[in-house]
Amino acid sequence: MNLDQPDATPQIEDSYYILCEDLFKIYKQEDLEVVALRGLDLKVRRGEMMAIVGASGSGKTTLLNILSGLDTPSAGRASVGGRNLLTMTSADLVTYRRKEVGFVWQQTARNLVPYLSSLQNVELPMILEGIDAGPARTRGRELLEIVGLGHRLEMKPDRLSGGEQQRVAIAVSLANDPPLLLADEPTGELDSQTASEIFSVLYTLNQELGVTVVIVTHDPAIANQIDRVVAIRDGRISTESFRRVAFEGREAYVYHDEYAVVDRTGRLQIPKEYLERLDLKERARIRLEGDHVEVLPEDAAPEEEEA
Ligand code: ADP
Ligand code: MG
């Protein structure tokens, strides 16, 4: 320990690999401000595979861009593997993007260099990292085999199907052996059969290589296969669901057990459907009823005074 330079930053809980607390991202466009993340909390353990769902515009891509070091948060805390994403220098961020995270985009074309073969696409990040051609080639082949494309090494992206292109993209993202893989709607442009194959590839990488996987998805068929799914609404986590298997006689069925997320100051989001049904706006009455809390519309009768 260096006593001359005490670390002023509070110790970040190291049991979580990804830790976001009260995270804000504000985009400024001329005199307009867009709050894309507003006090988002998220914890992900090393080696976990989890999913993020949410309506378009809720802040999913913004969050992934921050976690991948492509964008910087406006306020709050965000750390990955103990690295503070708010205080990293731009040089650190470059190294971070090259070595710590792999990224797969929804737009298949954006992931690959069109005039390079599958193998060359996978080799490229390694060459940029200064790895020799021989080892880069060997690892490139291995990765393409892992994603099931050992027979497509020399093909260029335009000769591959959408699903094959995403497999190459996954291999590219893992070229420099990052511990974290971020995928932003990686199956958004694929049919359901191909989407489920891509999901299997990600699952295998998570199980066999121990890569932490965070996947943004709109696809309920994909989300249903993931143990923990968090939903973003309006720049904050609103619900968290856990995959459970139940038995009815000898039949097993899978369902997601959903919880509303309560933040450190006690805020939680009431589902939009309930807000509308009860016409809840601006103010509500909250009552403690023994073992639970009731939330009532503003015009509900006030609580009876105790005699
Ligand atoms: P999602 O991926 O869930 O669809 P995004 O993270 O892309 O949502 O966007 C969240 C909000 O932030 C949206 O209102 C979007 O218009 C806005 N936004 C995203 N990127 C920018 C940007 N570069 N400049 C201004 N506003 C942005
Ligand atoms: Mg998005």
Q: In a nutshell, what does this entry contain?
A:
With 307 residues, this protein is α/β, with parallel strands linked by helices. It has 9 helices and 13 strands.
Summarize the amount of helix as a percent range.
25-40%
Q: Which sheet architecture does the biggest sheet show? A: 7 strands, mixed
The ligands bound in this entry are:
adenosine-5'-diphosphate, magnesium ion
Strand order of the largest sheet: 6-7-8-3-9-10-11
Q: Overall pLDDT, averaged?
A: 90
Oligomer: single chain
CATH architecture of the domain at 11-100 and 178-241: 3-Layer(aba) Sandwich
Task: Explain how this protein is built.
The protein has 307 residues and is an alpha/beta fold. Among the domains are: 11-100 and 178-241, P-loop containing nucleotide triphosphate hydrolases (Rossmann fold), CATH 3.40.50.300; 271-307, no CATH class. It contains 9 helices and 13 strands. It has helices at residues 60-67, 90-99, 108-111, 118-128, 133-146, 162-173, 192-209, 220-223, 272-277; strands at residues 18-29, 32-44, 49-53, 75-80, 83-84, 101-104, 180-184, 212-216, 228-233, 236-248, 251-260, 284-289, 292-297. The strands form 3 sheets. Strands 6-7-8-3-9-10-11 form a 7-stranded mixed beta sheet, with helices on both faces. Strand 9 (228-233) and strand 10 (236-248) form a beta hairpin. Helix 4 packs parallel to helix 6 (162-173) and helix 6 (162-173) runs parallel beside helix 7. It starts with 17 loop residues before the first strand and ends in a 10-residue tail after the last strand. Residues 1-13 have low confidence and may be disordered. It binds adenosine-5'-diphosphate (ADP) and magnesium ion. Residues 27, 29, 34, 36, 54, 56-62 line the site of adenosine-5'-diphosphate.
